[in-house]
Task: inverse folding
């Protein structure tokens, strides 16, 4: 664990130099401890680090460093048996899955196989960023790992379910983006009524559930 100054009122705790399941568990365990504290203005987790913003009238760098080292000295990094499972219904169709055929061709698989592989895993949320509610999830099965598009789209529809390299995500709102689009969901990732702004947090596990076009329409989906 390495604590560094980020700004006049913030520090970053680095747990590892590489993204991995182990580093994710360290971040999640530390985040769980720190979010229960009322000592900080903001606690923002990422892949291998946590950014903490604090009150400069309560801490300076040395005192907050000492506080954090003591607080996180013996954190339990074992994965909890009880999980916060979030199921996201997805319509995997070529009308909305613009890159399904590309991913399938590159992997030498059928579109059906790509869908089965993508929806069969339980994904960890590694970080939330880029857009409010944009959850970076991993790890995608190595058989369908696909790099980002060389030329990003200027407009990716809200709800697009996508992959890029070993990660998967859902676009919480319409925006530019270069990820490979496999399908679409009506699930709302961005919710202004929640403190976290999203029903998904780094403590969540995500399961994608394939649904028919008819069910997608019933849920209010649009092509």
Result:
């Amino acid at each position: 664990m390495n604590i560094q100054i980020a700004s006049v009122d913030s520090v970053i705790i680095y747990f590892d130099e590489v993204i991995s399941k182990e580093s994710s568990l360290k971040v999640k365990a530390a985040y769980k401890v720190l979010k229960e504290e009322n000592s900080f203005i903001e606690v923002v987790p990422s892949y291998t680090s946590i950014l903490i913003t604090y009150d400069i009238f309560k801490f300076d760098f040395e005192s907050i460093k000492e506080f954090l080292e003591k607080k996180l000295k013996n954190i339990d990094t074992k994965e909890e048996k009880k999980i916060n499972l979030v199921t996201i219904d997805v319509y995997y169709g070529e009308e909305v899955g613009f890159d399904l055929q590309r991913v399938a061709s590159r992997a030498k698989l059928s579109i059906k196989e790509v869908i089965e592989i993508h929806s069969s895993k339980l994904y960890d949320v590694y970080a939330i960023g880029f857009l409010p509610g944009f959850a970076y999830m991993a790890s995608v099965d190595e058989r369908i790992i696909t790099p980002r598009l060389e030329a990003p789209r200027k407009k990716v529809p809200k709800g697009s379910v996508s992959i890029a390299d070993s990660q998967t995500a859902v676009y919480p709102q319409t925006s530019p983006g270069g990820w490979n689009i496999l399908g679409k969901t009506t699930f709302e990732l961005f919710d202004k009524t929640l403190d976290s702004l999203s029903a998904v947090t780094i403590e969540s596990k995500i399961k994608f559930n394939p649904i028919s076009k008819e069910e997608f329409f019933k849920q209010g989906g649009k092509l």
Remarks:
- The two ends are 47 Å apart (CA to CA).
- The mean pLDDT is 92.
- The CA atoms of residues 128 and 135 lie 4 Å apart.
- The helical segments are 21-35, 61-71, 100-107, 111-119, 213-218.
